[in-house]
Design goal:
19-stranded mixed β-barrel, mainly beta, 1 helix
Length: 276
């Protein structure tokens, strides 16, 4: 695929990743191995307070077809089959969860030089239909994201977004929750050599008349180590350091403090991902 506006989920994604990705207060461990036949097997354990959750997933790639199967601690089996480019620019995703018989879903994604479309429908008698579309190019794009419940005849989700990209700057504006929330975000890559970037996100709720402002930054100390920090207008400050101690294997430690209640203990999160 050549350059294009991407999908609706890409609007504001750079700023969201800078401000929220890899931050966590849990303890997470992931190990991935590969069989001689090329099947990837991943085991993940997460400690949330006193609760421990685990899952085992496998991934098999055969030409342009990728099959993912995950089993969690509640004995749910999640299966996703992705067919990449059965036709130019098209991707088909089929997913379901056992034993939930109403979880089946088919999604089609199509990306063009001047448009990006994603549509999904549940495999039930009265499904929920999702549609998102973006028009524009790799500089300026405008899109919408909506869901329609065929059982009730109601629109359950209605969002709209605008994205502007210029060189090392990305600005986005989205209207969410059926017009109740307005979010503006900004991302600026200051130095490509050190991957230094700054970002900000301002959200306003019309129903509660509340504003939330989050600003953050990231910087690569060396090719294998990066740091990030963020703070919001409620006084919550977070930071993390991530080190790639071997190819594709990452160790991340993150922390959060409430500067308005400094006597409270800081939240510390650890994540270790091992890959061969």
């Amino acid at each position: 695929m050549g350059k294009g506006p991407g999908l609706y989920s890409d609007i504001g994604k750079k700023a969201r990743d800078l401000l929220y990705k890899d931050y966590q207060s849990d303890h997470k461990f992931t190990i991935t191995t590969y069989t001689s036949g090329g099947v990837a097997i991943s085991s993940t354990g997460v400690k949330k307070g006193e609760i421990f959750l685990a899952d085992v997933s496998t991934q098999l790639k055969n030409n342009n077809i990728t099959t993912d199967v995950k089993v969690d601690t509640n004995s749910n089996v999640h299966t996703t089959v992705t067919i990449d480019e059965p036709a130019p620019g098209l991707k088909t995703i089929f997913s379901f969860r056992v034993p939930d018989q109403r979880s089946g879903k088919v999604e089609l994604q199509y990306q063009h030089e001047y448009a990006g479309i994603s549509t999904g429908i549940g495999l039930t008698a009265s499904p929920i239909v999702n549609f998102s579309g973006v028009v524009g190019n790799d500089k300026l794009s405008l899109g919408t994201d909506l869901s329609f419940d065929t059982a009730s005849g109601n629109i359950t989700k209605l969002n709209a977004g605008l994205s502007y990209i210029h060189s090392d700057l990305i600005a986005a504006l989205t209207l969410n929750d059926k017009g109740d929330a307005l979010t503006a975000s900004y991302y600026h890559l200051v130095s490509p050599l050190s991957n230094t970037a700054v970002g900000a996100e301002l959200s306003h709720s019309f129903s509660s008349n509340e504003n939330t402002l989050t600003i953050g930054t990231q910087h690569a100390l060396d090719p294998l180590t990066s740091v990030k920090a963020r703070v919001n207008n409620y006084g919550r400050a977070s930071a993390l350091i991530q080190h790639e101690w071997r190819p594709k294997s990452l160790f991340t430690i993150s922390g959060e403090v409430d500067t308005r209640a400094i006597e409270k203990s800081a939240k510390i999160g650890l994540a270790l991902a091992l890959k061969p």
